[in-house]
Amino acid sequence: MTTNNRFVIIGAGMAGLNAAATLRNEGYKNEIMLLDKNSNLPYDRPPLSKGFLTGELDEEQILLRSPNFYDDNNIKLNLSRSAIRLDLDKQLVELDNHETVTWDKLLIAVGSRLRKLNIPGTELKHVHYLKTKEDSILLKQDLQSCEDIVIIGAGFIGSEVAASCRRKGINVTVIEALPTPLRNILGDRMGEFIAKLHRSNGVNLITNEFATELTGEDSVKEVVTNTGRRIPCQAVVIGIGVELDLNLIERTEINAANGIMVDEYCETNIPGVFAAGDCALWPYFGEKIRVEHWDHAMNQAKTAAKNMFNPKTERYNTIPYFWSDQYDVRFQYLGHAKDWDSTVLRGSIEEKKFTFFYLKNNKIVGALFVNDPKNVIPVRRFIMQNTIFNDPSILGDTHQKIKEVATKETNN
Questions:
Q1: Rounded to whole angstroms, how far apart are CA atoms 134 and 175?
Q2: Cα separation of 40 and 138, whole Å?
Q3: What one-character DSSP code corresponds to residue 404?
Q4: Would the N or C end of the chain have less CB density within 10 A of its end CB?
Q5: What pLDDT score was predicted for residue 360?
Q6: By mean pLDDT, which of 200-204, 233-237, 249-253 is the weakest?
């Protein structure tokens, strides 16, 4: 190892900040530099579509740490600087002002970037994407005088913005290209539940349709769809997902596919170079996956930091988890179910309190909890232990406690 006496973290979001804090908690004494292209102190992103957007939280309340945390812990913030090139042999990163920073260990936690909608009219005023605090502030300003808003995409961001706008009394139209919201993640039955939830709260949800044009002379006035439908509005939010930005490693020997490939210790194929969060492709039950959620970014970064300080000491084996708050519903999800061969419902859809299991080969690969948090811990244990259910329907028996329904048979 070189003697630069510095650990460098590229990306000051949830992953990067938690890695820096963990390094100090683990006892690392030398310099930690946290690099980020944005100028803001690290802040929490989930409130941007909820409490911060509605005005219930202010800028100080969404900070991940207090402003004095960084000086108190000798963490050097290098903000408003983009990392543009890595030299793995010399162990240095070049910044957009041509300065270079050397490292002993490097963590790449660059997150993801928004996927842009390529149709005419997206350059008009009052057309929004939602990724940063600045995005949320601009949208919040528009909502003060907005009567009708169109949201393109019924994913989690679009759904949360729709719920926030309805709370403010704004007329909301959501356009979703799929037959049901979140169909690719949750399937049709849960997609129908989410669709009904939005419609029952006054959202005009349009499915199996997509936007083809935004019209207006200077500001957006209408959204036109592929069927010729024209929807008047004073603002538009585009939420069609995110994509990777791997430009930083393109000309390096760091292995990447749909993400930066890391092992169970969050280390890349280059010794001393780690990755965590949205950008990392990591081993999970025999496959390589990438997860774009808050909980994952936090936990994987903590594991990466521990292995940066004490190599190969802690494996990352956390079950993916995310949550979303919409209207009177708290959604929680565990697992990573790309496909499944059966499902089981436990509880009542009508009462909006249930757990919906996704199974493959009689094992739980994912579970959606709707206002049903008590089941999260035992189900996490079932997934972690690869528990086999000889009769999966027993999961739906509410007369038995969920932690008591598993067979003793496991396949670890």
A1: 24
A2: 16
A3: G
A4: C
A5: 96
A6: 249-253
Instruction: Quote the pTM value.
Output: 0.93
DSSP state of 280: E
Residue 3: pLDDT band (50, 70, 90) is: low
Question: Which residues, other chains included, contact 318 with Cβ-Cβ below 8 Å and sequence gap of 6+?
Answer: 295, 296, 299, 300, 303
Query: Which tens digit of pLDDT belongs to each residue from 357-371?
Result: 999 999 999 999 999
Tokens of residue 389, six digits: 């259910």
- Which alpha helices (DSSP H) does 129-258 contain, by range? 133-143, 156-167, 183-200
Q: Please give the backbone phi and psi of residue 165, each rounded to the nearest 5 degrees, phi first.
A: -65, -40
Q: Are 305 and 19 in contact (CB under 8 A)?
A: yes
- CATH homologous superfamily of 328-404: FAD/NAD-linked reductase, C-terminal dimerisation domain (3.30.390.30)
Neighbours of 314 (CB within 10 A): 15
Q: Which pLDDT tens digit goes with each residue over 325-356?
A: 999 999 999 999 989 999 999 999 999 999 99
What pLDDT digit, counting tens, does each position of 258-305 carry? 899 999 999 999 999 999 999 999 999 989 999 999 999 999 999 999
Looking up tokens 């430009």, which residue turns up? 247
Instruction: Give DSSP secondary structure letters for 325-359.
Output: EETTEEEEEEE--S--SEEEEEEETTTTEEEEEEE
At the fourth CATH level, the homologous superfamily of domain 6-112+244-309 is FAD/NAD(P)-binding domain (3.50.50.60)
- CA distances to 318, 340, 365, 384, 410 from 381, in Å: 11, 19, 12, 5, 11
CB atoms within 10 A of CB 168: 15
How many CA atoms are closer than 13 Å to the CA of 98, on its beta-carbon side?
A: 0
* Distance in angstroms (rounded) separating the CA atoms of residues 45 and 242: 14
Nearest to 82 by CA among 110, 41, 112, 105: 110
Tell which CATH classification among 3.30.420.10, 2.60.40.1120, 3.50.50.60, 3.10.560.10 matches the domain 127-241.
3.50.50.60
